[in-house]
Amino acid sequence: MMRIGHGYDVHRFGAGRPLVLGGVHVPCDRGLVGHSDADVVAHALMDAILGALRAGDIGALFPDTDPAYAGVDSLVLMARVADLACERGWKVVDADCTIAAQAPKLAGYREAMRKNMARALGVSVESVGVKATTTERLGFVGREEGIAAWAVVLLDRA
Ligand SMILES: Nc1ccn([C@@H]2O[C@H](COP(=O)(O)O)[C@@H](O)[C@H]2O)c(=O)n1
Ligand SMILES: C[C@@]1(CO)OP(=O)(O)OP(=O)(O)OC[C@H]1O
Protein backbone atom coordinates (compact mmCIF):
# COMPACT_ATOMS: atom_id res chain seq x y z
CA MET A 1 0.00 0.00 0.00
CA MET A 2 1.18 3.53 -0.72
CA ARG A 3 0.24 6.84 0.88
CA ILE A 4 0.03 10.32 -0.68
CA GLY A 5 0.54 13.58 1.20
CA HIS A 6 0.16 17.25 0.40
CA GLY A 7 1.62 20.30 2.17
CA TYR A 8 1.29 24.06 1.83
CA ASP A 9 3.00 26.93 3.65
CA VAL A 10 3.41 30.70 3.41
CA HIS A 11 5.87 33.06 5.09
CA ARG A 12 6.00 36.81 4.76
CA PHE A 13 9.09 38.81 3.88
CA GLY A 14 10.85 40.87 6.53
CA ALA A 15 14.00 42.97 6.62
CA GLY A 16 17.12 41.72 8.32
CA ARG A 17 16.31 38.05 7.85
CA PRO A 18 18.22 35.49 5.76
CA LEU A 19 16.27 33.93 2.88
CA VAL A 20 16.51 30.17 3.38
CA LEU A 21 14.80 27.90 0.85
CA GLY A 22 15.37 24.16 0.78
CA GLY A 23 18.33 24.74 3.10
CA VAL A 24 19.95 27.14 0.61
CA HIS A 25 20.82 30.66 1.77
CA VAL A 26 19.62 32.62 -1.25
CA PRO A 27 21.23 36.04 -1.63
CA CYS A 28 18.45 38.62 -1.15
CA ASP A 29 17.96 42.00 0.54
CA ARG A 30 15.28 40.44 2.79
CA GLY A 31 14.26 37.08 4.09
CA LEU A 32 11.23 35.24 5.39
CA VAL A 33 9.90 35.83 8.89
CA GLY A 34 9.28 32.92 11.23
CA HIS A 35 10.08 31.39 14.60
CA SER A 36 12.35 28.93 12.77
CA ASP A 37 14.54 29.76 9.77
CA ALA A 38 11.18 30.12 7.92
CA ASP A 39 12.22 27.70 5.17
CA VAL A 40 8.80 27.69 3.52
CA VAL A 41 9.49 24.89 1.02
CA ALA A 42 10.97 22.61 3.68
CA HIS A 43 7.87 23.26 5.79
CA ALA A 44 5.53 22.38 2.92
CA LEU A 45 7.44 19.15 2.28
CA MET A 46 7.43 18.18 5.96
CA ASP A 47 3.68 18.78 6.16
CA ALA A 48 3.17 16.61 3.06
CA ILE A 49 5.03 13.76 4.76
CA LEU A 50 3.15 14.24 8.04
CA GLY A 51 -0.13 14.28 6.10
CA ALA A 52 0.72 10.97 4.45
CA LEU A 53 1.67 9.56 7.86
CA ARG A 54 -1.59 10.91 9.38
CA ALA A 55 0.74 12.34 12.03
CA GLY A 56 -0.63 15.87 12.41
CA ASP A 57 1.41 18.80 11.13
CA ILE A 58 4.67 20.63 11.81
CA GLY A 59 3.04 23.10 14.18
CA ALA A 60 1.85 20.22 16.37
CA LEU A 61 5.22 18.44 16.23
CA PHE A 62 7.46 21.51 16.53
CA PRO A 63 5.41 24.24 18.29
CA ASP A 64 6.32 27.83 17.45
CA THR A 65 6.03 28.61 21.17
CA ASP A 66 8.94 26.30 21.98
CA PRO A 67 12.26 28.19 22.34
CA ALA A 68 14.03 25.02 21.18
CA TYR A 69 12.87 25.85 17.65
CA ALA A 70 13.87 29.52 17.61
CA GLY A 71 15.93 29.99 14.46
CA VAL A 72 16.15 26.24 13.95
CA ASP A 73 17.45 24.84 10.65
CA SER A 74 14.29 23.35 9.12
CA LEU A 75 16.34 20.57 7.52
CA VAL A 76 17.12 19.30 11.03
CA LEU A 77 13.35 19.09 11.59
CA MET A 78 12.96 17.41 8.19
CA ALA A 79 15.41 14.67 9.22
CA ARG A 80 13.27 14.12 12.35
CA VAL A 81 10.15 13.80 10.19
CA ALA A 82 11.98 11.24 8.03
CA ASP A 83 12.92 9.33 11.21
CA LEU A 84 9.28 9.39 12.30
CA ALA A 85 8.23 7.94 8.93
CA CYS A 86 10.84 5.21 9.35
CA GLU A 87 9.67 4.42 12.91
CA ARG A 88 6.13 4.01 11.57
CA GLY A 89 7.33 1.69 8.79
CA TRP A 90 7.19 4.12 5.85
CA LYS A 91 9.78 5.51 3.42
CA VAL A 92 9.64 8.49 1.08
CA VAL A 93 9.74 7.26 -2.52
CA ASP A 94 9.01 10.51 -4.33
CA ALA A 95 8.36 14.18 -3.60
CA ASP A 96 7.78 17.31 -5.65
CA CYS A 97 7.68 20.94 -4.55
CA THR A 98 6.58 24.22 -6.13
CA ILE A 99 7.73 27.59 -4.80
CA ALA A 100 5.74 30.69 -5.75
CA ALA A 101 8.05 33.70 -5.49
CA GLN A 102 7.87 36.86 -7.58
CA ALA A 103 11.51 37.49 -6.63
CA PRO A 104 14.31 36.62 -6.32
CA LYS A 105 15.02 34.37 -9.27
CA LEU A 106 15.42 30.85 -7.88
CA ALA A 107 16.35 28.76 -10.94
CA GLY A 108 20.04 28.80 -10.03
CA TYR A 109 19.34 27.32 -6.57
CA ARG A 110 16.88 24.55 -7.45
CA GLU A 111 19.47 21.78 -7.68
CA ALA A 112 21.07 22.69 -4.35
CA MET A 113 17.61 22.70 -2.72
CA ARG A 114 16.89 19.23 -4.15
CA LYS A 115 20.22 17.92 -2.84
CA ASN A 116 19.75 19.43 0.61
CA MET A 117 16.22 18.14 1.11
CA ALA A 118 17.08 14.70 -0.34
CA ARG A 119 19.99 14.46 2.11
CA ALA A 120 17.75 15.44 5.03
CA LEU A 121 15.23 12.78 4.01
CA GLY A 122 17.89 10.13 3.34
CA VAL A 123 16.72 9.59 -0.25
CA SER A 124 18.26 9.99 -3.70
CA VAL A 125 18.25 13.46 -5.22
CA GLU A 126 16.21 11.94 -8.06
CA SER A 127 13.38 11.48 -5.57
CA VAL A 128 12.98 15.20 -4.85
CA GLY A 129 11.73 17.76 -7.36
CA VAL A 130 11.77 21.55 -6.89
CA LYS A 131 10.24 24.11 -9.22
CA ALA A 132 9.74 27.86 -9.00
CA THR A 133 7.12 30.13 -10.47
CA THR A 134 6.08 33.74 -10.18
CA THR A 135 2.40 34.63 -9.95
CA GLU A 136 2.67 37.17 -12.76
CA ARG A 137 2.59 39.95 -10.14
CA LEU A 138 -0.85 38.84 -8.89
CA GLY A 139 -1.75 38.44 -5.21
CA PHE A 140 0.47 38.57 -2.12
CA VAL A 141 3.25 36.69 -3.89
CA GLY A 142 3.06 39.04 -6.86
CA ARG A 143 3.25 42.05 -4.56
CA GLU A 144 6.39 40.49 -3.05
CA GLU A 145 4.84 40.33 0.40
CA GLY A 146 5.86 36.72 0.89
CA ILE A 147 6.59 33.33 -0.61
CA ALA A 148 4.27 30.31 -0.83
CA ALA A 149 5.21 26.67 -1.35
CA TRP A 150 3.36 23.44 -2.05
CA ALA A 151 4.62 19.88 -1.88
CA VAL A 152 3.32 16.42 -2.67
CA VAL A 153 4.89 13.20 -1.47
CA LEU A 154 4.48 9.49 -2.03
CA LEU A 155 5.28 7.06 0.78
CA ASP A 156 5.67 3.30 0.48
CA ARG A 157 6.07 0.64 3.12
CA ALA A 158 9.74 0.51 4.23
N1 LIG B 1 11.19 33.10 -8.31
C1 LIG B 1 11.27 32.48 -9.51
C2 LIG B 1 10.18 32.39 -10.36
C3 LIG B 1 10.34 31.78 -11.57
N2 LIG B 1 11.52 31.26 -11.93
C4 LIG B 1 11.73 30.64 -13.26
O1 LIG B 1 11.10 31.39 -14.28
C5 LIG B 1 10.19 30.55 -15.03
C6 LIG B 1 9.00 31.33 -15.51
O2 LIG B 1 8.22 31.75 -14.40
P1 LIG B 1 6.74 32.27 -14.68
O3 LIG B 1 6.16 32.52 -13.33
O4 LIG B 1 6.89 33.49 -15.49
O5 LIG B 1 6.01 31.18 -15.40
C7 LIG B 1 9.87 29.41 -14.10
O6 LIG B 1 9.47 28.26 -14.82
C8 LIG B 1 11.20 29.22 -13.40
O7 LIG B 1 12.08 28.51 -14.21
C9 LIG B 1 12.58 31.35 -11.08
O8 LIG B 1 13.69 30.88 -11.37
N3 LIG B 1 12.44 31.96 -9.88
C1 LIG C 1 8.66 24.72 12.14
C2 LIG C 1 8.06 25.91 12.87
C3 LIG C 1 8.71 25.97 14.28
O1 LIG C 1 8.35 27.13 14.96
O2 LIG C 1 8.47 27.01 12.10
P1 LIG C 1 7.86 28.52 11.95
O3 LIG C 1 8.98 29.39 11.50
O4 LIG C 1 7.13 28.94 13.17
O5 LIG C 1 6.92 28.36 10.67
P2 LIG C 1 5.37 28.02 10.48
O6 LIG C 1 5.28 27.41 9.09
O7 LIG C 1 4.54 29.21 10.73
O8 LIG C 1 4.99 26.93 11.56
C4 LIG C 1 5.76 25.76 11.71
C5 LIG C 1 6.53 25.76 13.02
O9 LIG C 1 6.22 24.57 13.66
From TrEMBL:
Q: What's the EC number here?
A: 4.6.1.12
Report the Pfam families cross-referenced here. YgbB
Gene Ontology molecular function: 2-C-methyl-D-erythritol 2,4-cyclodiphosphate synthase activity; metal ion binding
Coiled-coil segments on the chain, per record: none
The record lists the membrane-crossing segments as none
An example GO biological process term is:
terpenoid biosynthetic process
Task: Cite the InterPro entries for this sequence.
Answer: MECDP_synthase, MECDP_synthase_CS, MECDP_synthase_sf
Which Gene3D superfamilies does UniProt cross-reference here? 2-C-methyl-D-erythritol 2,4-cyclodiphosphate synthase
Q: In which pathway does it act?
A: Isoprenoid biosynthesis; isopentenyl diphosphate biosynthesis via DXP pathway; isopentenyl diphosphate from 1-deoxy-D-xylulose 5-phosphate: step 4/6
**How is the co-factor bound, per the entry?**
Binds 1 divalent metal cation per subunit.
Where along the chain is a divalent metal cation bound? 9, 11, 43
Q: Which residues bind 4-CDP-2-C-methyl-D-erythritol 2-phosphate?
A: 9-11, 35-36, 57-59, 62-66, 133-136, 140, 143
Q: List residues of the 2-C-methyl-D-erythritol 2,4-cyclodiphosphate synthase domain.
A: 2-155
Q: Which reaction does it catalyse?
A: 4-CDP-2-C-methyl-D-erythritol 2-phosphate = 2-C-methyl-D-erythritol 2,4-cyclic diphosphate + CMP
Keywords, A to Z, come to:
Isoprene biosynthesis, Lyase, Metal-binding
Q: Which family does it belong to?
A: Belongs to the IspF family.
Q: Do you know which NCBIfam families this protein is assigned to?
A: ispF
Oligomer status and interactors = Homotrimer.
Question: What is the documented function of this protein?
Answer: Involved in the biosynthesis of isopentenyl diphosphate (IPP) and dimethylallyl diphosphate (DMAPP), two major building blocks of isoprenoid compounds. Catalyzes the conversion of 4-diphosphocytidyl-2-C-methyl-D-erythritol 2-phosphate (CDP-ME2P) to 2-C-methyl-D-erythritol 2,4-cyclodiphosphate (ME-CPP) with a corresponding release of cytidine 5-monophosphate (CMP).
Q: Which PANTHER family match?
A: 2-C-METHYL-D-ERYTHRITOL 2,4-CYCLODIPHOSPHATE SYNTHASE, CHLOROPLASTIC (PTHR43181:SF1)
Q: What is this protein called?
A: 2-C-methyl-D-erythritol 2,4-cyclodiphosphate synthase
